[in-house]
Amino acid sequence: MARKVTARRVWVSTAAAWLFGFLIFLPILWMVLTSFKTELEAFSMPPKFLLFHWTTENYATVQERSDYFHHAVNSLLIAGGSTLIAMIIAIPAAWSMAFAPTRRTKDILLWMLSTKMMPSVGVLLPIYLIYRDFGLLDRRAGLVMILCLGNLPIVIWMLFTYFKEIPKDILEAARMDGATIGRELVYVLTPMAIPGLASTLLLNFILAWNEAFWTLNLSTSDAAPLTVFIASYSSPEGLFWAKLSAASTLAIAPIIILGWFTQRQLVRGLTFGAVK
Amino acid sequence: MATQQTQVLGRALLTPAVALLFIWMIVPLAMTIYFSTLHYSLLDSEAWSFVGLENFRYFLTDPAFLTALRNTLVLVGSVLAITILLGTPLALLLDQQVVGRSIIRLMVIAPFFVMPTVSALVWKNLLMHPVSGLFAWVATLVGTTPIDWFNDVPLFSVILIVAWQWLPFATLILLTALQSQDEEQKEAAEMDGASALSTFIYLTLPHLARPITVVILIETIFLLTVFAEIFVTTGGGPGLATTNIAFLIYTQALVQYDVGNASAGGLVAVVIANIVAFFLVRIVGRNLEA
């Protein structure tokens, strides 16, 4: 039964919520607007909100001068690669813990969670030295490896909570009917697990795309993803606001769109099932 | 239902993940512990010697450490305060009947998906620039002098940026928790004549206690190691004004190439994070049993 709410209260809440939402979104909106200005108008005071000379030249220059696509491809390969490998390792592990739990399953899960809490900076030097000696600095493979390991606990946890929700009765019924484990996996489990698999994949892709500790410390140019590319705009000689905005807009647009689809799973993935 | 066959299979499937995570955790950590007992610089890698706990004494008594520790605590504490004090009313608001809620939700959640280097640079240049930034314009509109954010209040500027990134997380989790609150209980309270305020204090707030704890613990773990936002805006400065522990260790490791000292610092960071992690793991563990 819906609660009765007065029309006036709805309008007050609505106005407040829109104001809050707008203020929070403003930096992103402002960045997108700036990306369509000329460099001169980007600096102009008072700022121009909508009545400026709209141009897409920044987007063209960002690509021509700085090889934007090279870094975008790096981001895609690094985030995609690390997520896929993590899934391949995590699916069997999560399956095992959800469907064949032992006495130690809970301890293993909590231990996995605790590895995620080790601050990266605590192992920065060993990793840096290992990477230097194995020639992995500024290599995509190196970043794929480290991001894969870093996100593995979250992937396993998310998959575990999804697998846990698949009713066991169905599995038993399938087994009664003589299904082998292989058939059970393909015909019973997989179809039910697909939504969970998809959202795990998506959320971890987003996390890997935005990761900015290892990428900044272990790559400079060849393997540099967009996080590092954008950071290069922080040098004083690189201060072109409109171009910075255009590059930034390109870097975050696909992820924000993906992110909006996963907002529900975000809570689950990042709280390790502690809040549902 | 677990037959012996599934048990064996289960163990086989679990092993690769456990082995990888174990190596990932143990090898670098063991190396950090080993390095932390050495006098060892990458600039002069021939000359290294065993110095015992000397690095820890040096790191912990270094005035830079105390400054960095203070900055870390201020940053973590302020961001937690801002995200929870703003996130709770915002979540309550979005839980109301509101026209266009899904669009507002999208706008509120968006900052969380912006990569740290982008949000830091956009805030620093487009918003906080003392002459041409949006904030400077607002300041002149209301007739005050614009603030030179990164010179006058550098740490606070970093705090604002990080808080903006984490506000969506706190809001979303609190909102999710609010939506699982028992509506009938609230209705019953209203029928008994409870005011909106006492409903909030006696029903909603206790219901939010747990998600707020979770938000605090998870944010703390991430906030203890804020790095990219400092790296692209201030580089830890001016002076040490925005250097937190993570950034201090980074400077010692990859700017000064002081392996021993940076490793000692790294272990200090691990210990601090573990204290927080201990509590989080306990809460999550309790939930696993339920």
From TrEMBL, chain A:
Record-linked Pfam families: BPD_transp_1
Asked if Transport is a keyword of the record, the answer is: yes
InterPro entries found in the cross-reference section: BP-dep_ABC_trans_perm, MetI-like, MetI-like_sf
The record places domain ABC transmembrane type-1 at 72-262
Membrane topology, as annotated, equals: Multi-pass membrane protein
Listed under GO cellular component are: plasma membrane
User: Which residues are listed as membrane-spanning?
Assistant: 12-33, 76-96, 108-131, 143-163, 184-209, 240-261
**Which key words tag this protein in UniProt?**
Cell membrane, Membrane, Transmembrane, Transmembrane helix, Transport
Q: Which GO terms describe its biological process?
A: transmembrane transport
Q: What is its main location?
A: membrane
State where the protein is found. Answer: Cell membrane
Q: Which family does it belong to?
A: Belongs to the binding-protein-dependent transport system permease family.
* Official protein name in the record: Sugar ABC transporter permease
* Organism name: Bradyrhizobium valentinum
From TrEMBL, chain B:
Q: Which CDD domains does the UniProt entry name for this protein?
A: TM_PBP2
Any one GO cellular component localisation term in the record: plasma membrane
Signal sequence annotation:
none
Name all ABC transmembrane type-1 domain ranges. Answer: 69-280
Annotated SUPFAM superfamilies: MetI-like (SSF161098)
Q: How does it sit in the membrane?
A: Multi-pass membrane protein
* InterPro entries assigned to the protein according to its UniProt record, in alphabetical order: MetI-like, MetI-like_sf
Query: Where is this gene product found?
Result: Cell membrane
Membrane-crossing ranges are: 12-35, 73-94, 106-123, 155-176, 239-257, 263-284
Tell me a GO biological process for this protein.
Answer: transmembrane transport
Q: What is its main location?
A: membrane
| Highest taxon above the source species | Bacteria
Keyword annotations for this protein, in alphabetical order, are:
Cell membrane, Membrane, Transmembrane, Transmembrane helix, Transport
- Family classification: Belongs to the binding-protein-dependent transport system permease family.
Name under which the protein is recorded: Sugar ABC transporter permease
